[in-house]
Amino acid sequence: MQQTITHCVWCDTKLHANRSWQGLWGREQRATICESCLQQFEVFTQPEEACFIYNEIASEWLQRYKIQKDLLLATSFTQQLRQRLLKERAIIVPVPLHPLKLQERTFAQVEQLLIAAALPYEEHLLKKDNITQGLGSRAERLQRENPFVLRDRTAVLNRDFVIFDDVCTTGVTLQHIVMLFKEAGARKVTTFTLFRSEFTRMMYNK
Ligand SMILES: [Zn+2]
User: What is the similarity comment for this entry (predicted)?
Assistant: First the structure.
């Protein structure tokens, strides 16, 4: 998918050929973001929870990827995502967009990150409606109706899952989803995001 990318997807400078042994073995995909751009993204302190800290540049990246629909950016962090998720034995489940939002945005941004990284995943979730999550206290938000449903409850029984999203700020979305899987009898449910707010501690991510 990314063999034609010769320039950094973030700053557009020419990329140097990457001749690492992984590259020679065809095991790793080539970086599509240059080293100096990559260094601007702060590595998250808990590597099993997220790749990078959700900060100003992360927010800028998301804006360009999701709102300006710069689809090439989906390849930015394939190496980091593969590093964490390739050996993952649990089933990767991307967090879906509401169908209306999907229409607006024209592509499934979270799934595209996995597709670009050539990571296998299963779709188990549907988003019911457009509940605004920004209002009310954390407890109030949690008590509201879960905006997600499982496509088939019996399909998650006694299986392990890692829920994948692009960004985790309050943790509310992921908490809803983890509850849903656990109620349906999933064995172990963890979460992983590309970006995560430093202040978010996922108590249930054990
Ligand atoms: Zn660059």
Answer: Belongs to the ComF/GntX family.
